[in-house]
Amino acid sequence: MRKRLAVAIPAVVAAFSFSAALRGQDQSQTAPQPAAASAHNAAADHGISGVWNAMRGNYDVASFSKGNPPMTMWGQAQYDAAKPSQGPRGVSLAETTDRVYKCVPAGMPYIYLQLFPVQIVKTPKAVIEIFESDHTVRYIYTDGRQHPAKLKPTYNGHSIGHWEGNTLVVDTIGLSGKLWLDRVGHPDSEQMHITERIYRVDDKTLQVDFTFDDPKSYVQPWTALMRFRLQPKWDIQEDVCTDNIAFESFEK
What we know:
single chain; 9-stranded mixed β-barrel
């Protein structure tokens, strides 16, 4: 049975970073074009369904970027004030101001950086991402609807998508801005607009290309990517944050 992972403690992060086979690409590299769907993947499914686990990149495993994206004065002030548990400025879990360790929902896009798998399920009206981390569920509506004129900000925001061949193009707005973008304290505001392109690179690999556009936090839009490995023998297990609320014990 697959070992259950605690919420991204440093020792687990180190274990995930060892394999050269799990090397991703940073934002400066050119994303490959989506591979054609194989006969194994029915066209109606577009090839993205399944249980996937993040493949760690050649940058800090807790961040979408290598180094710091250019920030506004407001964004830089938020970053300077943050006390993350990960990255070069990492402090102990007792000192961190990362609210995820207090069981505040990670939300988008931070949830992608948790060391837990995600299951993608395609339905006629939506693509559903079921994250094992605190059993978070995200809906990407693909039935042609638009974003509501009045959105109540939420941790995951409101996501709509459409298909370009076998690539799911996702547009997300309506984020609350209550948390960080990532685990190293990069800022995220209610003005964040995220575009994702989700597609299969090959039979075993899924890629998500991100564009982050948050004029309150960053001086210009910037891009990143993550890759995920198919885990056909895995199931999504129950994970409840409050069962692990004493995160400091992981450092002892």
